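Revision sheet: structure tokens.
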Amino acid sequence: MAIEAIKLEQQRRATTVKDPSQQKHGQDRDEKKRKKKIHRVTMIGEYQMNDYGNAKRFLDKHEQDLRYCPKIGWFVWSGIHWAFDETGQAESLLLDTMLEIEQDEEVAENHLACHPTFNFDDQNEAEDYIEAVKRFAHSSRYAHSLEGAMRIATRARQDLIVTPQDSRFAQIWR
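Predicted:
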């Protein structure tokens, strides 16, 4: 049965007519070069397009409001004191941060058009970059990406890690 399926697939591929526009070698090569250049773009502003960059973006945005204790968990500033995060506020802040990636000024079309450091040769490359950032922003909201960013956030910034012996945060332990 499996052999018949393989033969049918081979026949289908052999009879498939290629798109004439794909046969023009020059255009095909230019398209590959353009996609390769877009693929090399791995930054949105100062942040990498990966879980580490997402963790850094999250911590930079909320550094005044969050602390992490390795053996206990996240603490959130209530405006008066540090409180243990019993409600998952740190995770909510991370998700909010990820939802804002698409709206980041570095990907706004008007900013991209006048920002010389991107070095795009044409408008198609700029549009492809914007699309790549939107795809990254969307994938950053998946559970595995959020978990990866949160796991990295627990170790990424030593200045946000506290311990019971840390006198600067003695009020946490009272």
